[in-house]
Amino acid sequence: MLRGTRRWGRCVMVGEGNRLDIDVSPWLIHKQVTLHGSWVTSLPRMAELLDNLVRWDVHPDRVVSDRFSLAEAGQAYRTADTATGGKVALVMGA
Description:
Blueprint: E1 10-14, H1 24-29, E2 34-38, H2 43-56, E3 64-68, H3 73-82, E4 87-90
Parallel strand pairs: 1-2, 3-4
């Protein structure tokens, strides 16, 4: 993610994860990158969301127009940048 973030760009890490070990100078400081972290919601709210999706007959998979593997992240970002389709998803293990 940081490799693909342009100079003066912003990068957001969403959700839970493990560790991130980086060399701060070349990846953040020299590129002037702003890094944000966000934990989306609590587990009870996530359960409520899932119940609502069923109740409202909403199918998030229908709005995903393009799926890419992590190795194809560059193409995924280029596709999303065109704003011509639906949601672009990076799929683990794809």
